[in-house]
Amino acid sequence: MTDYKFILNQTVRFEEDRHHEFKEIKGGNPIDAIKNAADEYVVGFLNSGLGGGSIYWGINDSGVVVGVKLNREQRDELRRKVSEKLSQIKPAISPAACKVEIHDIYDETSTKLGELYIVEIIAPQRDAQQSNLYSTGGDEVFIKVDGAKKKLTVAELQDEIKRRASSNTLPYPEALQKYLDYLIIAHQRLRWQGIRAGSQPLSIDLEKVYVSLTAMEKGGQGGLLTIPEALKRHKRLVIIGDPGSGKTTLLAYLALTYARTLRDGADAVQTRLQLNETQHLPILLPLRDLGRHLLAEHKDSSKDGAAILLNYLREYYQAQTIHLPEDFFANALEQGRAVLLLDGMDEVAEKSLRQRVARLIEKLVQSYKHDDNRFIVTSREVGYEGVARISENFGLAKVRDFNRAEVRAFVRDWTRAVETTLAGNESPVADEQAENLIKAIENNQRIIELAVNPLLLTVIALVHRYNASLPDRRSELYKEAIEVLLGHWDEAKGLETEVTLGGKVLDSDDRRSLLEPVAFWMHEQRIREIELDQLRELLLPVFNNGDAASATKTFESFIRLINERSGLLIERGVGAYSFAHLTFQEYLTARVVADRADATKYIVDRLPDAWWREVIMLTAGYLSTQGKRRVSELIRAIITADPKTEPYGEPCHHLILAGECLLDAGSARVEGEVMNELKVRLKKDADLLLNFKRENRRQTLRKIAATNALERIGSGTLAAPKYWKSPWGEPDWVTIPAGEFWMGSGKGNDHEKPLHRVYVAEFQIARTLITNYQYRLYVTDAKVKPPDDWSDGQPPKGKENHPMVQVNWHDARNYCAWLSEKINCEVRLPTEAEWEKAARGDKDKREYPWGDDWRELHCNSDRLGLDDTTPVGFFLYGASPYGVLDMSGNVWEWCQSKYKPYPYKADDGREDLNGDDYRALRGGAWYNHIDSMRVSNRVRYSPTVIDYDVVFRCALSL
Fold it and tell me: What is d(CA 646, CA 46) in angstroms, rounded to the nearest whole number?
């Protein structure tokens, strides 16, 4: 047994004249000392201010207190060794009998002497009250608990340690283990109990389904950032985003990542976040709970300080039966190894309360200024404004909507996780179901626009899985989404789903009914934002029970409820509100229209108006759930509507719209002959005999449109898709695989020769040319000069979906650079080789995208006599082997490449982007002979010239 001197019932002072009372172990290892102590108990202190850093040990027969100055690794090792040795002592002492307290030591003048690490062991079958306790600095000791300094006499210190010995507080190693276990168990599963998915609640593995978010930094350096990049740039960060954008899930994912790293030793922090923070303690807290606590327990805001927040953290986790040491969180903050994750500033009930919470966060940051601490706060944008904003050098980033690739990744991971969970093992059908869902989303532009964040995408996926394919049940999808936002989302977040306002209990159906006339009024006014005064005028009568003051108060409470909790009607600016997505305004309007006695006449009067198109289809979908008669009556009225009222440039508009309504409603929900009636009308137009003269332009376009519609009926949509995605007009990309193809021609013009093999790496190309609509987004956002043929900054009326013309090569490249920044990908013009491969394919030497022989109605050339551009994607039968459209005819297209002789060599300088050398044009235009439509045909053009027949499409390297 090690030779130790016993110290009994004495006050230990950090004074050199008392050192003789200890057995001094100079340079010794406290861990080894404990390991070799057999079944003895060690008592000792380290004088970190005096004595040259010597370590002193002593023993009594009832408990142990070890005071040492250790670094982080030594501390963790000490705790492990203590627990290990306790289990070996006879009789064995469980880790539960060991408590680790870590305090700062002060003298009477409040000068910090160092850190005191106390390991207190209560031996079994012994009385904890008999433990000998020691103090420093004479008859007083100052300790720091949760950021507040506390002065104790020796007797008070003895009482405090006895109290702790008899409390439920866990020793540090066990507390840390239980805390990390709780974080992982509580957040590793995504539970969708608030979303109805058949009869079973859905719970899936977060880490299997999580898709990393992308944010747009507000202020500062600007630009797009991944979350790891944002975290690397900002130790203190506020992340704002729309409801359902994934803010809460992000913090759960971060908590999981740090907890797994700290508990299991696997460096998930480095792998997932590219951060070197393996020892950081995640601290996750919903701010709405803190707000409630402040109202209940701390009404006087003048006494707010960091200690309130830290004390509440311990109380919060104590409610989960995790009894943490008093300095559990403060210790991590003091040592710079804390990650504080504060969720939902906007969910704190009142603006004044949000201000208090913001100030508390600031005081916490000021109290623990260690550079290695990390602070992350989330909020909806509307809840993070004015006095509720946090200073202390917090960065600010807004979560960006999912792009197409992120939607696909989310769907694939989500489907695989769901099917595996439900099947109990790997499901062989998961990948097939995921691809079906992706196809269902991407075949409907309106659903593409809705699938912008994890919440709405999850709703779409659930409806697809449990109800029906998306195009057949669009109105039900929107109904489900609105129910989620108005009620079930609150349920999933643990909030009340029924709210009493003005003595009335309002469930989600009541709230929806109140918003329907608001949506209808806005749509009739053709607006997307409504002023608060107008909202008051529309809704105040509903709440008026004879008491004007009470009605006003109820109205204000309702608006606040909808704005802060549902995310359906959002405050975009001071006193200006709009629906979170135009789709929701349109759906609620459709419900109002469907309930009108004159619904059919009301709709027929609005058939040519694009503003009402979606409302018309949603009205048909909603009516189909009420019975067959009314929806059949509506669709027949659209089929027989006067073609002369069709909008300019949209042949067969009414027939196509009737077909869309029919497909939206579902053939089983309408009377049996309606589909046949539509097909008969379309076939009549498709069978028109033409002589392709210019005076027959209208009939030619009608014939092509009807033919396309008949072709599309089986695919679930009649209308031509919109070949781009909001909000920036990102094109619909087609992937062209790597490999060789035949380039040039052996029998064409000299500049096309020789026919030769060329290798092209994998890339993506836009399915269609850039349209006026897409280019307008660029003109508006980048504030560049609009083309000369535009009026008041707007493209020619009726040509929004036509290819953009009047741009030179440099204009096209500037557009690509702008779009690159918006979608965080390197967008460019295609090279000549890429363009020709996308048009010809890699299987043969075909002359045209569709084959070797010329075919009428496959592209817009002089043979049709249209004498103008046509909408992009209009000639479905003219698609290339890869499904790329408009590669022949309509307008010429800019390529990236300089115009140089063949054979094509990418490294001979022709892909140099500098200089004003001639560039290659491809594809031919509407006025050209069919010879110009050949895929090998090429002409040269000055990159500075602007013309009425030249446009471009975009490409992406992979």
Answer: 91
Q: Of 743, 746, 755, 766, which is closest to residue 906 (Cα–Cα)?
A: 743
569 strand-pairing partners = 579
How far is the C-alpha of 21 from the C-alpha of 133, rounded, in Å? 16
Tens-place pLDDT, residues 721-751: 678 887 788 999 999 999 999 999 988 788 9
CB 304 within 8 A of CB 362: no
For every residue of 686-738, which 3-state class applies, written as one string? HCCCCCCCHHHHHHHHHHHHHHHHHHHHHHCCCCCCCCEECCCCEECEEEECC
For residue 563, give the DSSP letter.
I
Name, in order, each residue with C-beta under 8 angstroms of 338's C-beta and a sequence gap of 6 or more.
280, 281, 283, 329, 332, 368, 373, 374
Q: How many residues does the chain have?
A: 958
Residue with tokens 């009607």: 569
Alpha helices in 605-693, H assignment, sequence order: 613-623, 628-639, 653-665, 674-686
Sign of CA dihedral 870, 871, 872, 876: negative
Distance in Å from the first CA to the final CA of the chain: 70
Higher pLDDT, 468 or 243: 243
The whole-angstrom separation of Cα 445 and Cα 404 is 12
| CB contact burial 42-77 (16+ within 10 A = b; e otherwise) | bbbbbbbeebeeebbbbbbebbbbbbbbbeeeebee
H-type helices in 167-302, by residue range?
172-187, 206-209, 227-233, 247-264, 268-273, 287-297
- Cα four-point dihedral sign 10, 13, 17, 23: positive
pTM attached to this predicted model: 0.54
User: Distance of alpha carbon 440 from its chain centroid, rounded?
Assistant: 21
State how far the Cα of 285 lies from the Cα of 342, in Å rounded to an integer: 5
Query: 570 in helix, strand or coil?
Result: strand
Locate 502 and state its tokens: 């003005």
DSSP-derived 3-state class of residue 177: helix
Distance CA 187, CA 193 (A): 14
Task: Characterise 527 by phi-psi region: left (phi > 0), alpha (psi -120 to 50), beta (else).
Answer: beta
Sheet holding 148-153, edge to edge: 112-121, 98-106, 140-145, 148-153
Angstrom distance (rounded) from CA 954 to CA 803: 13
Amino acid letter, 601: K
Which two structure tokens, joined as six digits, stand for 479?
């109904």
Cβ atoms within 10 Å of 556's Cβ, excluding its own: 14
CA dihedral 662, 666, 668, 669 (to 10 degrees): -70
Tokens of 687: 């069978």
Q: What is the distance between the alpha carbons of residues 775 and 637, in angstroms, rounded to a whole number? A: 36
Plot region of 932 (φ>0 → left; ψ -120 to 50 → alpha; else → beta): alpha
What would you measure as the largest C-alpha separation in the chain, in angstroms? 118
**Would you state the structure tokens that stand for residue 337, as one six-digit string?**
């190894």
Contact 921, 939 (CB under 8 A): yes
β-strand partners of 499: 506
Angle (nearest 5°) at CA 121 between 116 and 122: 140
Q: How many whole angstroms separate alpha carbon 227 and alpha carbon 250?
A: 9
CA-based nearest residue to 742, from 729, 759, 728: 759
504 C-beta neighbours (distance < 10 Å), count: 13
Task: Please give, one letter per residue, the 3-state secondary structure of 440-453.
Answer: HHHCCHHHHHHCCC
Strands 827-828 and 892-898: unpaired
Which tens digit of pLDDT belongs to each residue from 193-229? 433 334 444 567 888 778 788 787 775 545 677 888 9
At 129-144, the pLDDT tens digits run 222 223 333 444 555 4
Q: 3-state DSSP call for residue 827?
A: strand
